[in-house]
Amino acid sequence: MITFKTNLGDIKIELDFDNAPKTAANFKQYCEDGFYNGTIFHRVIKGFMAQGGGFESGMSEKTTRGAIDNEANNGLSNTRGSLAMARTQDPHSASAQFFINLVDNNFLDFKNESVQGWGYCVFANVVEGMDIVDKMTLVTTGRTGYHDDVPQEDITIESVEVA
Predict the structure, then answer these.
(1) Do the Cβ atoms of 156 and 42 come closer than 8 Å?
(2) Which of 58, 104, 152, 163 is most buried per CB count within 10 Å?
(3) Which residues form the PPIase cyclophilin-type domain (predicted)?
(4) 137-162: burial string, b at 16+ Cβ within 10 Å, e else
């Protein structure tokens, strides 16, 4: 069990080592290393998702470890409350950034092993605190530098507990 202590409240997450072993282990290691402490949810889109894990206040990007293999072909779906790895256009580019699905986003699921079909790997679920995640969608967002949908007031992961 992972607990994100945010400035809006606690979010408890359960990792799925059975279906996404490499991704869950990668995420847990970042948590144990304290990497997410002080990071912000830097992209929040109401009716879609809340993304975090890569930036500190002021949109200062953190240095991550290398990318991991995409395990999106694990049969899990991007449903409300699930966590998935964020990535670039390269299907195997995920490292530390993740997003929490605010609604069922099945269009993000694995379809096939092509650049367009890989999808986004689900590796965990929120088991407590979805009300806190929903609160994130109430903040005003805007453009900061090259980034859209940035909360204008920081939503910060103050600390992380690994149980």
Answers:
(1) no
(2) 104
(3) 1-162
(4) bebebeeeeeeebbbeebbbbeebee
> Mean pLDDT over all residues of the chain?
97
Phi, psi of 17 (to 5 degrees): -70, -25
- Tokens 């402490």 correspond to 37
Of 98, 91, 85, 95, the C-alpha closest to 116 is 91
Nearest partner of 5 among 160, 155, 163, judged by Cα: 160
Handedness of CA 155, 158, 162, 163 (dihedral sign): negative
pTM: 0.97
The answer to whether the beta carbons of residues 31 and 162 sit under 8 Å apart is yes
Under the banding of pLDDT at 50, 70 and 90, the label for residue 61 is very high
